[in-house]
Amino acid sequence: MTTNDLTLAAVGCSGPVSQIFVAGFLELGVKVRVLARNPDRIASRHPEAEVIQGSMTEPADVARVTEGVDGAFVMTPMGMRNRPAPEVDAARAVIEGAQASKLSHLVYTSVLGADRPHGVGILDAKFEIERMIASSGLPYSILRCGTYMEDIFDPNLKRLNEGTFFFPVNKDRRFTYTSQRDVPRFVAEELLKKTKVLNRSFNFVAPDTYSVRDVERLLSEASGIAIKAPFKFPTFYVFSALQPLFHLAGRRFSSILPLVRHFDRHGYTDAGDDVQDLFPDFRMTTLEEHLRKLWPERAAGRAAAKREGDER
Ligand SMILES: NC(=O)c1ccc[n+]([C@@H]2O[C@H](COP(=O)([O-])OP(=O)(O)OC[C@H]3O[C@@H](n4cnc5c(N)ncnc54)[C@H](OP(=O)(O)O)[C@@H]3O)[C@@H](O)[C@H]2O)c1
Fold first, then answer.
1. Does residue 176's CB lie within 6 angstroms of at least one atom of ligand 1?
2. Is there an atom of ligand 1 within 6 Å of 43 CB?
3. Helix (H) or strand (E) holding 53
4. Can you give the pTM of this predicted structure?
5. Going from the N-terminus, what domains does the chain have, and what CATH number goes with each?
6. Which residues are within 8 A (CB) of 171 and not within 5 positions of it... i.e. 6 or more apart?
7. Does the C-beta of 14 come closer than 6 Å to ligand 1?
8. Residue 66: strand, helix, or coil
Protein backbone atom coordinates (compact mmCIF):
# COMPACT_ATOMS: atom_id res chain seq x y z
CA MET A 1 0.00 0.00 0.00
CA THR A 2 1.24 3.54 -0.74
CA THR A 3 -0.03 6.74 0.83
CA ASN A 4 -1.88 7.39 -2.47
CA ASP A 5 -4.11 4.39 -1.70
CA LEU A 6 -5.17 5.79 1.66
CA THR A 7 -8.43 7.55 2.44
CA LEU A 8 -8.58 9.50 5.67
CA ALA A 9 -11.49 11.22 7.40
CA ALA A 10 -10.47 14.51 9.03
CA VAL A 11 -12.81 15.32 11.91
CA GLY A 12 -12.48 18.54 13.89
CA CYS A 13 -9.96 19.62 11.28
CA SER A 14 -11.55 22.75 9.90
CA GLY A 15 -10.17 25.05 12.61
CA PRO A 16 -7.10 27.27 12.32
CA VAL A 17 -4.61 24.92 13.95
CA SER A 18 -5.42 21.79 11.95
CA GLN A 19 -4.98 23.18 8.44
CA ILE A 20 -1.28 22.23 8.50
CA PHE A 21 -2.25 18.63 9.23
CA VAL A 22 -4.79 18.45 6.40
CA ALA A 23 -2.38 20.10 3.94
CA GLY A 24 0.33 17.63 5.03
CA PHE A 25 -1.86 14.59 4.37
CA LEU A 26 -2.85 15.96 0.95
CA GLU A 27 0.81 16.61 0.05
CA LEU A 28 1.52 12.93 0.78
CA GLY A 29 -1.18 11.94 -1.72
CA VAL A 30 -3.67 10.77 0.92
CA LYS A 31 -7.31 11.25 -0.08
CA VAL A 32 -8.80 13.40 2.67
CA ARG A 33 -12.48 13.79 3.54
CA VAL A 34 -12.99 16.79 5.80
CA LEU A 35 -16.14 17.18 7.88
CA ALA A 36 -17.14 20.84 8.28
CA ARG A 37 -20.25 22.83 9.08
CA ASN A 38 -19.21 25.41 6.49
CA PRO A 39 -17.89 23.36 3.55
CA ASP A 40 -17.26 26.29 1.15
CA ARG A 41 -14.66 27.85 3.43
CA ILE A 42 -12.80 24.54 3.75
CA ALA A 43 -13.10 23.66 0.04
CA SER A 44 -11.36 26.91 -0.87
CA ARG A 45 -8.70 26.29 1.77
CA HIS A 46 -8.03 22.69 0.61
CA PRO A 47 -9.23 22.38 -3.02
CA GLU A 48 -7.90 18.79 -3.33
CA ALA A 49 -9.90 17.56 -0.32
CA GLU A 50 -13.40 16.13 -0.37
CA VAL A 51 -15.43 18.27 2.00
CA ILE A 52 -18.54 16.82 3.60
CA GLN A 53 -21.08 19.12 5.17
CA GLY A 54 -21.92 18.26 8.76
CA SER A 55 -21.02 18.74 12.40
CA MET A 56 -18.62 16.72 14.54
CA THR A 57 -21.19 17.00 17.33
CA GLU A 58 -23.68 14.92 15.26
CA PRO A 59 -22.84 11.20 15.39
CA ALA A 60 -24.72 10.56 12.10
CA ASP A 61 -22.51 13.15 10.30
CA VAL A 62 -19.39 11.59 11.78
CA ALA A 63 -20.57 8.12 10.68
CA ARG A 64 -21.03 9.41 7.10
CA VAL A 65 -17.54 10.86 6.87
CA THR A 66 -15.81 7.87 8.51
CA GLU A 67 -17.65 5.18 6.51
CA GLY A 68 -15.15 2.94 4.68
CA VAL A 69 -12.01 5.04 5.35
CA ASP A 70 -8.59 3.68 6.38
CA GLY A 71 -8.59 5.88 9.44
CA ALA A 72 -9.93 9.06 10.99
CA PHE A 73 -7.71 11.87 12.20
CA VAL A 74 -9.51 13.63 15.04
CA MET A 75 -9.02 16.95 16.79
CA THR A 76 -11.40 18.39 19.36
CA PRO A 77 -12.47 22.05 19.66
CA MET A 78 -11.17 24.01 22.58
CA GLY A 79 -13.94 24.84 25.09
CA MET A 80 -14.15 28.50 26.15
CA ARG A 81 -14.08 29.76 29.78
CA ASN A 82 -11.65 27.00 30.78
CA ARG A 83 -14.43 24.40 30.52
CA PRO A 84 -13.55 20.89 29.32
CA ALA A 85 -17.23 19.95 28.74
CA PRO A 86 -17.72 21.23 25.14
CA GLU A 87 -14.59 19.45 23.99
CA VAL A 88 -15.53 16.23 25.81
CA ASP A 89 -19.09 16.35 24.41
CA ALA A 90 -17.74 16.73 20.85
CA ALA A 91 -15.45 13.73 21.39
CA ARG A 92 -18.36 11.67 22.72
CA ALA A 93 -20.33 12.35 19.51
CA VAL A 94 -17.29 11.49 17.37
CA ILE A 95 -16.84 8.17 19.18
CA GLU A 96 -20.53 7.34 18.76
CA GLY A 97 -20.39 8.09 15.01
CA ALA A 98 -17.15 6.15 14.59
CA GLN A 99 -18.66 3.15 16.37
CA ALA A 100 -21.67 3.28 14.05
CA SER A 101 -19.45 3.26 10.94
CA LYS A 102 -17.18 0.56 12.44
CA LEU A 103 -14.15 2.80 11.99
CA SER A 104 -10.95 0.76 11.67
CA HIS A 105 -8.56 3.28 13.27
CA LEU A 106 -9.15 6.48 15.23
CA VAL A 107 -6.06 8.70 15.52
CA TYR A 108 -6.42 11.45 18.11
CA THR A 109 -4.11 14.42 18.74
CA SER A 110 -3.84 14.96 22.48
CA VAL A 111 -1.50 16.80 24.84
CA LEU A 112 1.48 15.93 27.04
CA GLY A 113 0.54 14.71 30.50
CA ALA A 114 -3.01 13.67 29.52
CA ASP A 115 -2.72 10.63 31.80
CA ARG A 116 -3.81 12.85 34.72
CA PRO A 117 -5.92 15.96 35.34
CA HIS A 118 -4.18 19.32 35.89
CA GLY A 119 -7.05 21.70 36.70
CA VAL A 120 -6.72 23.34 33.26
CA GLY A 121 -9.71 22.96 30.91
CA ILE A 122 -7.77 22.37 27.66
CA LEU A 123 -5.61 19.69 29.29
CA ASP A 124 -8.30 18.03 31.40
CA ALA A 125 -10.58 17.66 28.36
CA LYS A 126 -7.89 15.54 26.74
CA PHE A 127 -7.54 13.45 29.93
CA GLU A 128 -11.28 12.64 29.78
CA ILE A 129 -11.29 12.09 26.03
CA GLU A 130 -8.33 9.72 26.07
CA ARG A 131 -10.14 7.57 28.65
CA MET A 132 -13.32 7.58 26.56
CA ILE A 133 -11.44 6.52 23.43
CA ALA A 134 -9.55 3.77 25.28
CA SER A 135 -12.79 2.28 26.60
CA SER A 136 -14.76 2.75 23.35
CA GLY A 137 -13.80 -0.56 21.75
CA LEU A 138 -12.49 1.37 18.72
CA PRO A 139 -8.97 0.63 17.44
CA TYR A 140 -7.00 3.78 18.26
CA SER A 141 -3.66 5.58 18.46
CA ILE A 142 -3.19 8.74 20.51
CA LEU A 143 -0.39 11.22 19.81
CA ARG A 144 0.36 13.42 22.82
CA CYS A 145 1.91 16.48 21.25
CA GLY A 146 4.10 19.22 22.71
CA THR A 147 3.74 22.91 21.91
CA TYR A 148 3.23 23.19 18.16
CA MET A 149 6.22 24.95 16.62
CA GLU A 150 4.09 26.20 13.70
CA ASP A 151 1.59 27.71 16.12
CA ILE A 152 3.92 29.49 18.52
CA PHE A 153 6.67 30.76 16.18
CA ASP A 154 5.56 30.93 12.51
CA PRO A 155 2.60 33.34 12.78
CA ASN A 156 4.70 35.61 15.01
CA LEU A 157 7.61 36.13 12.63
CA LYS A 158 7.03 39.89 12.41
CA ARG A 159 7.22 40.28 16.19
CA LEU A 160 10.24 37.95 16.36
CA ASN A 161 12.00 40.13 13.77
CA GLU A 162 11.34 43.08 16.05
CA GLY A 163 13.23 41.20 18.79
CA THR A 164 10.32 39.83 20.88
CA PHE A 165 9.27 36.25 21.58
CA PHE A 166 5.94 36.76 23.27
CA PHE A 167 5.90 34.16 26.04
CA PRO A 168 5.57 35.91 29.42
CA VAL A 169 6.26 33.01 31.81
CA ASN A 170 9.08 32.10 34.18
CA LYS A 171 12.11 31.88 31.89
CA ASP A 172 13.53 28.81 33.65
CA ARG A 173 10.55 26.60 32.86
CA ARG A 174 11.20 23.87 30.30
CA PHE A 175 8.99 23.13 27.30
CA THR A 176 8.62 20.31 24.80
CA TYR A 177 7.84 21.00 21.15
CA THR A 178 6.28 19.19 18.18
CA SER A 179 6.50 20.17 14.54
CA GLN A 180 2.98 19.81 13.18
CA ARG A 181 4.44 18.77 9.82
CA ASP A 182 5.75 15.55 11.40
CA VAL A 183 2.23 14.44 12.33
CA PRO A 184 0.76 13.62 8.86
CA ARG A 185 4.05 12.00 7.79
CA PHE A 186 3.97 9.78 10.89
CA VAL A 187 0.26 8.93 10.74
CA ALA A 188 0.27 8.13 7.01
CA GLU A 189 3.66 6.39 6.73
CA GLU A 190 4.01 4.61 10.07
CA LEU A 191 0.42 3.86 11.05
CA LEU A 192 -2.09 3.84 8.19
CA LYS A 193 0.15 2.55 5.37
CA LYS A 194 1.35 -0.29 7.59
CA THR A 195 -2.13 -0.82 9.11
CA LYS A 196 -0.51 -0.48 12.52
CA VAL A 197 -2.87 0.31 15.39
CA LEU A 198 -1.14 1.15 18.68
CA ASN A 199 -4.12 1.06 21.05
CA ARG A 200 -2.18 3.34 23.38
CA SER A 201 -1.07 6.93 23.93
CA PHE A 202 2.52 8.11 23.62
CA ASN A 203 4.41 11.39 23.51
CA PHE A 204 4.80 12.57 19.94
CA VAL A 205 7.51 15.16 20.57
CA ALA A 206 10.79 16.46 19.17
CA PRO A 207 13.93 15.43 21.07
CA ASP A 208 14.97 17.52 24.11
CA THR A 209 13.25 20.11 26.26
CA TYR A 210 14.09 23.81 26.26
CA SER A 211 13.81 26.57 28.84
CA VAL A 212 12.48 29.93 27.65
CA ARG A 213 16.08 31.20 27.94
CA ASP A 214 17.24 28.37 25.63
CA VAL A 215 14.59 29.41 23.10
CA GLU A 216 15.70 33.05 23.30
CA ARG A 217 19.23 31.91 22.44
CA LEU A 218 18.12 29.59 19.60
CA LEU A 219 15.90 32.28 18.10
CA SER A 220 18.72 34.82 18.27
CA GLU A 221 21.16 32.37 16.61
CA ALA A 222 18.70 31.43 13.84
CA SER A 223 17.69 35.03 13.06
CA GLY A 224 20.95 36.88 13.68
CA ILE A 225 19.16 39.45 15.87
CA ALA A 226 18.81 39.51 19.66
CA ILE A 227 15.37 38.05 20.47
CA LYS A 228 14.10 38.16 24.06
CA ALA A 229 10.96 36.94 25.78
CA PRO A 230 9.35 39.69 27.89
CA PHE A 231 9.77 39.36 31.63
CA LYS A 232 6.78 37.86 33.39
CA PHE A 233 6.17 41.20 35.07
CA PRO A 234 4.03 43.09 34.08
CA THR A 235 2.41 41.35 31.04
CA PHE A 236 1.47 38.11 32.80
CA TYR A 237 -0.15 39.99 35.70
CA VAL A 238 -2.02 42.40 33.41
CA PHE A 239 -3.51 39.45 31.52
CA SER A 240 -4.31 37.67 34.81
CA ALA A 241 -6.15 40.78 36.02
CA LEU A 242 -8.15 40.84 32.77
CA GLN A 243 -9.13 37.16 33.06
CA PRO A 244 -12.65 37.88 34.41
CA LEU A 245 -13.31 40.01 31.31
CA PHE A 246 -12.06 37.30 28.94
CA HIS A 247 -14.23 34.87 30.87
CA LEU A 248 -17.32 37.06 30.54
CA ALA A 249 -16.74 37.55 26.82
CA GLY A 250 -16.07 33.81 26.34
CA ARG A 251 -12.96 34.61 24.30
CA ARG A 252 -10.22 32.06 23.41
CA PHE A 253 -8.05 33.80 26.00
CA SER A 254 -10.47 32.67 28.73
CA SER A 255 -9.10 29.16 28.18
CA ILE A 256 -5.57 30.02 27.11
CA LEU A 257 -4.74 32.10 30.19
CA PRO A 258 -5.21 29.20 32.67
CA LEU A 259 -2.89 27.20 30.43
CA VAL A 260 -0.28 29.98 30.46
CA ARG A 261 -0.55 30.07 34.27
CA HIS A 262 0.02 26.30 34.36
CA PHE A 263 3.04 26.69 32.03
CA ASP A 264 4.41 29.41 34.29
CA ARG A 265 4.30 27.04 37.28
CA HIS A 266 5.26 23.75 35.66
CA GLY A 267 6.51 24.23 32.10
CA TYR A 268 5.42 21.54 29.65
CA THR A 269 7.38 18.30 29.90
CA ASP A 270 6.56 14.66 30.50
CA ALA A 271 8.75 11.62 31.08
CA GLY A 272 6.45 9.04 29.40
CA ASP A 273 7.35 6.88 26.38
CA ASP A 274 7.98 8.98 23.33
CA VAL A 275 8.03 8.44 19.60
CA GLN A 276 11.79 7.69 19.59
CA ASP A 277 11.27 4.85 22.11
CA LEU A 278 8.54 3.26 19.99
CA PHE A 279 9.68 4.21 16.46
CA PRO A 280 13.46 4.69 16.66
CA ASP A 281 13.76 5.03 12.87
CA PHE A 282 11.23 7.86 12.56
CA ARG A 283 12.99 11.22 12.44
CA MET A 284 11.31 14.09 14.23
CA THR A 285 12.08 17.69 13.25
CA THR A 286 14.19 19.31 15.96
CA LEU A 287 13.41 22.77 17.30
CA GLU A 288 16.74 24.04 15.95
CA GLU A 289 15.85 22.82 12.42
CA HIS A 290 12.43 24.41 12.54
CA LEU A 291 13.78 27.77 13.70
CA ARG A 292 16.52 27.78 11.07
CA LYS A 293 13.83 27.35 8.38
CA LEU A 294 12.11 30.53 9.59
CA TRP A 295 15.11 32.57 8.39
CA PRO A 296 16.03 30.71 5.18
CA GLU A 297 18.43 33.39 3.78
CA ARG A 298 20.50 33.26 6.93
CA ALA A 299 20.53 29.44 6.93
CA ALA A 300 21.65 29.52 3.25
CA GLY A 301 24.40 32.02 4.14
CA ARG A 302 25.61 29.77 6.95
CA ALA A 303 25.63 26.72 4.64
CA ALA A 304 27.62 28.65 1.98
CA ALA A 305 30.15 29.81 4.60
CA LYS A 306 30.54 26.24 5.81
CA ARG A 307 31.09 24.96 2.24
CA GLU A 308 33.74 27.64 1.71
CA GLY A 309 35.45 26.66 4.97
CA ASP A 310 35.38 22.96 3.99
CA GLU A 311 36.93 23.69 0.58
CA ARG A 312 39.83 25.62 2.11
N1 LIG B 1 -0.25 21.58 21.07
C2 LIG B 1 -0.44 22.84 20.79
O3 LIG B 1 0.50 23.66 20.78
C4 LIG B 1 -1.80 23.34 20.41
C5 LIG B 1 -1.92 24.66 19.99
C6 LIG B 1 -3.19 25.12 19.63
C7 LIG B 1 -4.28 24.26 19.69
N8 LIG B 1 -4.12 22.98 20.10
C9 LIG B 1 -5.28 22.07 20.16
O10 LIG B 1 -5.78 21.93 18.83
C11 LIG B 1 -7.17 21.63 18.89
C12 LIG B 1 -7.89 22.35 17.78
O13 LIG B 1 -7.72 23.73 17.86
P14 LIG B 1 -8.37 24.71 16.80
O15 LIG B 1 -8.17 26.08 17.38
O16 LIG B 1 -7.95 24.45 15.41
O17 LIG B 1 -9.83 24.24 16.87
P18 LIG B 1 -11.20 24.98 16.96
O19 LIG B 1 -11.19 26.24 16.18
O20 LIG B 1 -11.51 25.07 18.40
O21 LIG B 1 -12.18 23.98 16.18
C22 LIG B 1 -11.82 22.72 15.72
C23 LIG B 1 -12.98 22.03 15.07
O24 LIG B 1 -14.10 21.99 15.92
C25 LIG B 1 -15.29 22.23 15.20
N26 LIG B 1 -16.20 22.94 16.08
C27 LIG B 1 -15.91 23.98 16.89
N28 LIG B 1 -16.99 24.33 17.58
C29 LIG B 1 -17.99 23.52 17.18
C30 LIG B 1 -19.36 23.40 17.53
N31 LIG B 1 -19.92 24.21 18.42
N32 LIG B 1 -20.10 22.45 16.93
C33 LIG B 1 -19.54 21.64 16.01
N34 LIG B 1 -18.24 21.70 15.64
C35 LIG B 1 -17.48 22.62 16.22
C36 LIG B 1 -14.87 23.04 14.00
O37 LIG B 1 -15.74 22.63 12.95
P38 LIG B 1 -16.53 23.61 11.96
O39 LIG B 1 -15.63 23.94 10.82
O40 LIG B 1 -17.66 22.80 11.55
O41 LIG B 1 -16.86 24.85 12.74
C42 LIG B 1 -13.42 22.61 13.77
O43 LIG B 1 -13.35 21.56 12.84
C44 LIG B 1 -7.63 21.96 20.31
O45 LIG B 1 -7.89 20.74 20.96
C46 LIG B 1 -6.44 22.65 20.96
O47 LIG B 1 -6.32 22.33 22.33
C48 LIG B 1 -2.89 22.50 20.46
1. no
2. no
3. strand 50-53
4. 0.94
5. 3-147+177-206+271-279 (3.40.50.720)
6. 211, 212, 213, 216, 229, 231, 232
7. yes
8. helix
